Amino acid sequence: FHPNNAQRVMVTSADCRVRIIDQLNIVSKYK
Hints:
Layout: H1 3-30
């Protein structure tokens, strides 16, 4: 277990959340 890997995992999970939020915003715009 390396702190660097943990940091990378946190960044990727945050990126996924941002993408999901962006998709939700796009969907709500078209509704």
